[in-house]
């Protein structure tokens, strides 16, 4: 496939790596409505840490990637790839406003022959039932006559430097067989792991939805087992290690299930299922278990403190880690906040330390301040390791129990002799 002029709409965890990868072969405009984000990237700094400063500098210096928040700069493009977030609202229902806003932006510049590709996670049917009507309304053009669409679900794993964009097989699809082939060739030009052309846009959308629903359910089973074994005074990690000696045992672990994918995407699938008259009991049950784990960690820690005769009201607790996973700055849908909030409900004074998370973003989104520097562990009655950052694994936890404090390990990443409990 020849060189294309492509606009990537949304320059977050998904859009920026995609724009950088495509810039090796094509002329790219990276568009984002956040002027601060554009300015940051133009100074060769990526807050998501997905693209290194050197890599960003090289691609911008090549002239193959233009960064802009001005709609005029995407008018000359012929392929538009939408990579904006698709969150849920306070009622755990899909919030389509970001993707529909991006769709309207594209519609204002859409021309005959253009292709719009969506990568944002949605429920099956969203592209053609929700986005296409917006494209038609604001562009005045007709779907599959004047313009065409495709869907290629993102598979970005934040913080993973091995399973990167080009190293993961890419599912593609298009609104006509000819367009599907064009889109597949486009992605094949940058994806070293190869592509898989799905038979329809709906199939590609559904595939993305079940990828994360499956993982969510597997983790929810482990979390439910952890809740059961806790009542039996059995170490869940030891049980899983024993069970894993069987060749076909799936090695999932209990934990806090946050992030923008696993903790969110199943609600898109259940929303659509309910629309078509089916109540998805298994998926929703798994979500309920996973959403309750933060509160369990906090309550278990408080119980352990009481057993050590620690007065709870006014006690000091330290939570290590606030991002949703280790060694990355992503705080989207972090479930560590549930641990923090539950501890505060008991009257515990809580400090949170995370050298990876943006202090400014945490303050803005959650209303409290992260610690500025590494804490002294001996200052606390309880310490919870919520995220297994490498920086935490180097800390000296050995003496916490001897000093009468509680150490809870949610990631099962510390020596058993140091801890009071773990998931």
Describe the structure.
Helices cover 38% and strands 12% of the residues. The chain has 2 domains: 205 residues, Rossmann fold, CATH 3.40.50; 189 residues, NAD(P)-binding Rossmann-like Domain (Rossmann fold). Helix 7 crosses helix 9 and helix 11 packs across helix 12. It is of the alpha/beta class and 423 residues long. The protein is built from 14 helices and 13 strands.
Short description:
The protein is an alpha/beta fold and 423 residues long. Helix content is 38%, strand content 12%.
Strand content: 5-15%
Largest sheet, in brief, is:
6 strands, parallel
**Poorly predicted runs:** none
What order do the helices and strands follow? EHEHHEEHEHEEHEHHHHHEHEHEHEE
Level-1 CATH class name of the largest domain: Alpha Beta
Average pLDDT score: 95
CATH architectural type of the largest domain: 3-Layer(aba) Sandwich
Looking across the biggest beta sheet, what order are the strands in? 3-2-1-4-5-6
CATH fold-level topology of the largest domain: Rossmann fold
Helical run tally: 14
Whole-angstrom Rg: 23 Å
Topology diagram in text:
Blueprint: E1 5-9, H1 15-22, E2 27-31, H2 35-42, H3 53-61, E3 65-68, E4 79-82, H4 97-109, E5 115-118, H5 126-139, E6 148-151, E7 170-172, H6 177-188, E8 195-197, H7 201-231, H8 236-243, H9 265-275, H10 281-291, H11 293-307, E9 316-320, H12 336-345, E10 349-353, H13 359-366, E11 382-385, H14 390-393, E12 406-409, E13 421-422
Helix pairs in contact: 4-5, 7-9, 7-10, 11-12
